[in-house]
Design a protein that fits this description.
The complex is a heterodimer of chains A (127) and B (130). Chain A is mainly α and 127 residues long. Helices cover 83% and strands 0% of the residues of chain A. Helices cover 79% and strands 0% of the residues of chain B. Chain B is mainly α. In chain B, α2 packs across α3 and α3 packs antiparallel against α4. The chains are: A mainly alpha (127), B mainly alpha (130). Chains A and B meet through α2, α3, α4 and α5 of A and α1, α2, α3 and α4 of B.
C-alpha cells in the first residue's frame, strides 16, 4: 500500500521538501568552481612577490573583478551548502543543528559581502 | 543522542582498509579546511581594498613561516578537493562505479593533487625569483 498522495508523488519531493535543490546547487557550483579556481590559482601564482600597485591594478580591472566576484560568490555558496551537510550529518540535537546551520549561512554571507565589496572598491578606485 | 537501545551496525574499524574510504573522509575534511581558508581569501581581498599598509601586513603574514605552512596545507586541500570533486561529478553523471575503477580513479586523484600542489609551489617560487 502506498500512503503518498498522487500530488506528492508527481512532485517527487519527500518530507524535507527541497533536497534536490540543495544537491543540484552543490553540483552546479562545483562545476563552476573548476575553471574559476584554476584561473585564480594560476593568476595568484603568476603574481607571487608582486607589489601592491600590481595586485590592485590586477584585481581592479573589469574582467578580473567580475571573475573574482563570481569566484567569491560561488565559493561561499558552495562552502555553505557543504558545511550544512556536514552539520546535518553529525549534529543530532535539533536546535543546535538549526543554530549551527544559521551561523554558517550568516558567516558565509558576511564574508562573501566583505570580499565582494573589497573587489568593488578596487574596481572603482582604479577608475 | 541515542534515545533507544537498538542494535548498531558494526563500526568503521571492522572493515578492511581501502583507498576509497580514506579519500571519502578526506574530501569532507579538505572541504571543511577550505571553508576555513576562505577567511584568508577574504582577508587578502579586504586588505588590498584597505590600502598599501594593510596589504603589506597581509602579505607579511602570508609570507611568514606560519603563513607559508598554512598556505601549503590549503593549497593541497584545494587541489585534492578539486580533483576528487571532479571524480564525484563523474559519479554523479553515472560513470565509474566499478570497484576496480573507483580504486584506480582514487589513486589518480592522489597523484594529480600531489603533482598540482608541487607545480603550484615551484611556479610560485619561480615567479618570485623572476
Amino acid at each position: 500500500m502506498n500512503l503518498r498522495s498522487p500530488l506528492g508523488r508527481v512532485r517527487g519531493l519527500g518530507s524535507a521538501k527541497d533536497g534536490t535543490g540543495h544537491w543540484w546547487a552543490q553540483r552546479l557550483t562545483a562545476l563552476a568552481l573548476i575553471p574559476l579556481t584554476l584561473w585564480f590559482c594560476i593568476a595568484v601564482i603568476a603574481m607571487t612577490g608582486a607589489d601592491y600597485a600590481a595586485v590592485a591594478a590586477w584585481a581592479g580591472s573589469p574582467l578580473v573583478a567580475g571573475l573574482l566576484i563570481l569566484l567569491v560568490a560561488t565559493t561561499f555558496y558552495h562552502a555553505a551548502l557543504g558545511l550544512q551537510v556536514v552539520i546535518e550529518d553529525y549534529v543530532h540535537h535539533e536546535m543546535t543543528k538549526l543554530a549551527l546551520v544559521l551561523v554558517v549561512k550568516a558567516l558565509s554571507l558576511v564574508l562573501a559581502l566583505t570580499a565582494i565589496l573589497s573587489v568593488l572598491i578596487l574596481l572603482f578606485a582604479r577608475v | 543522542m541515542i534515545s533507544s537501545r537498538r542494535p548498531l551496525s558494526p563500526h568503521l574499524q571492522v572493515y578492511r582498509w581501502q583507498i576509497t574510504m580514506t579519500l571519502s573522509i578526506l574530501h569532507r575534511l579538505t572541504g571543511i579546511a577550505l571553508a576555513v581558508g576562505t577567511l584568508l581569501l577574504t582577508y587578502w581581498l579586504a586588505a588590498a581594498a584597505t590600502g598599501p599598509d594593510a596589504f603589506a601586513a597581509a602579505q607579511g603574514f602570508i609570507g611568514s613561516l606560519v603563513g607559508r605552512l598554512l598556505l601549503f596545507g590549503w593549497s593541497y586541500a584545494l587541489f585534492y578537493h578539486l580533483c576528487n570533486g571532479i571524480r564525484h561529478l563523474v559519479w554523479d553523471a553515472g560513470y565509474g562505479f566499478e570497484i576496480a575503477t573507483t580504486t584506480r580513479s582514487g589513486w589518480a586523484v592522489v597523484a594529480a593533487s600531489v603533482v598540482l600542489t608541487l607545480a603550484a609551489w615551484i611556479g610560485g617560487y619561480l615567479a618570485m625569483g623572476a
